[in-house]
């Protein structure tokens, strides 16, 4: 600006519309908007400059079409751009482009890999609805979190719908009972129709008969969690993004459950000795647990104040990530006696956009093939549902280590299981080992007989060794061209960093009909490190 | 290689330049493709003062970007451009008109960017004053516009 000395009133040459357009093409959206109001010619040139608004839409939101904020195609880029501006206030704007890009990446991946999950995404939450939920919660949500719901209000899943219905019914029943039961059959009818019962209501689905179709839909939807999952022995999680209103309901359920649990323990404590002594013991117990949590690197909280579930497993209590409305962070929340322990799931505390950064990282991982479609667990055969999940075992090197010995390919990857109830202060690492026999293997068939593991600490010292027969009780037979044999197991570690390597003993042919001797197959070293981003 | 070309402004000033220098103007380039023998180019839409600046710009950029001892770094070119733009607003506008007419793309970009900077962070009235523009929008037009660009006030 200082480069051009100004002389007001000096006769200025008339710039042609073409020249003005060239100048306008360099304007920021705000300057262009002000320019619109200068005069008719300027307005027509700026509003009609499709390149200008196309560029701003692409630069700010990563949108390359005339897509409006409601997902519909608009007439012009100007209409699309101003539509987004109108729909999303200033507080959203620093995060909107990031959120749109991450959602676009995720939806693109889903369309190509798991369309059944794409179909579960709900339309964006309106600003009015978001505000209503905030006022019910009693606290405001950070825009970096809200913006994700404004674009897609989580997932609609039959299993979760049913869970929500049963919770609302139970609450309704309790409310009716507390209300003196005067309305008897009337309240029963309202409950059976799934009618509104209070504060958080608005939704939804009348209580179905639960026929086989509905049951299949419910089971299928267990696996349709947007944020993926894993199975380690009897521990199964598939994380989903609940709609904001449902997240608020889950929150009040968790708060209620915690209060009930505390009450029961306090009652028990009160059975011996007096009230005061019981209170004292309760406080001591809570403090002891908090101290224990702190030592394990967790952040103890007495309540869920300012926390709201963002990602939950289908089996709600098993794995819950909560967004912190005050700090703007995202953490895994584990219930314990007298409160909650948080494990931060996003590195760099202090930034106000924890859930958004976590979401963006997740989008990157899907896009890069780090996470892929995987098999969940075996279901009763009569259920004719698709059983596949987004598997949280990494599938790209270096997170997935690979080695081939005599044609036997071994691939190993690890996932940190933050929600595991591990022995005091220990960390649970689940690993998936994949076996296959390459086409050019010298053998036509071989069978696994033994496993041998060495677990090391950060300095490379051996912490533990394991020798055993088979893997998780199985003796897989490998043949070229057969699908990979995959198994999952886990290890508890005191340290947050370490490594594991091993060997598998195979026999040529099968154990029953050996051909040639046995041989060792290397399993490459894989890290047992607590990650910075936890999913 | 060193063929010369004479450019004549609308007020009769003549500028002798190397052909290569003049070829930065897409308009002149196209003209020479049509009339290959031309040695003189009359430029009816550019005055002498402005044409002198355009020639200065094209000469410098030709020397600065061609391989050899006159070649300059990107930073040095940028610095020169900045000094080049230190002109009065009316000259800047004349340059924009000339660059647009002559199709000197990089000069057009440079000058339009500078003009855009003049508008940046100004109120609508300040822009009108600066460009000597009358507001011919009706109250209805303005109301309609405001409904679309409320966000600009944030």
TrEMBL record, chain A:
Tell me the domain of life.
Eukaryota
The biased composition feature labelled Gly residues covers 178-187
Q: Output the PROSITE patterns linked to this UniProt entry.
A: APAG (PS51087)
Domain ApaG residue range list:
402-535
User: Matching SUPFAM superfamilies, A to Z?
Assistant: ApaG-like, F-box domain
**InterPro entries registered for this protein in UniProt:** ApaG_domain (IPR007474), ApaG_sf (IPR036767), F-box-like_dom_sf (IPR036047), F-box_dom (IPR001810), Knr4/Smi1-like_dom (IPR018958)
Q: Where is this region: Disordered?
A: 178-201
User: What name does this protein carry?
Assistant: ApaG domain-containing protein
Gene behind this protein: PLEST003770
Automatic annotation (TrEMBL), chain B:
Q: Which keywords does the record carry?
A: Ubl conjugation pathway
InterPro entries in the record, alphabetically? SKP1, SKP1-like, SKP1-like_dim_sf, SKP1/BTB/POZ_sf, Skp1_comp_dimer, Skp1_comp_POZ
What pathway does this protein act in?
A: Protein modification; protein ubiquitination
Name the Gene3D superfamilies for this protein: Potassium Channel Kv1.1, Chain A (3.30.710.10)
Name the Gene Ontology biological process terms.
jasmonic acid mediated signaling pathway; protein ubiquitination; ubiquitin-dependent protein catabolic process
Residue ranges constituting the SKP1 component POZ domain according to the UniProt record? 4-61
Positions of the SKP1 component dimerisation domain = 106-151
Q: Which family does it belong to?
A: Belongs to the SKP1 family.
- Function of the protein: Involved in ubiquitination and subsequent proteasomal degradation of target proteins. Together with CUL1, RBX1 and a F-box protein, it forms a SCF E3 ubiquitin ligase complex. The functional specificity of this complex depends on the type of F-box protein. In the SCF complex, it serves as an adapter that links the F-box protein to CUL1.
Complex formation:
Part of a SCF (SKP1-cullin-F-box) protein ligase complex.
Protein's UniProt name: SKP1-like protein
Organism of this sequence: Pleodorina starrii
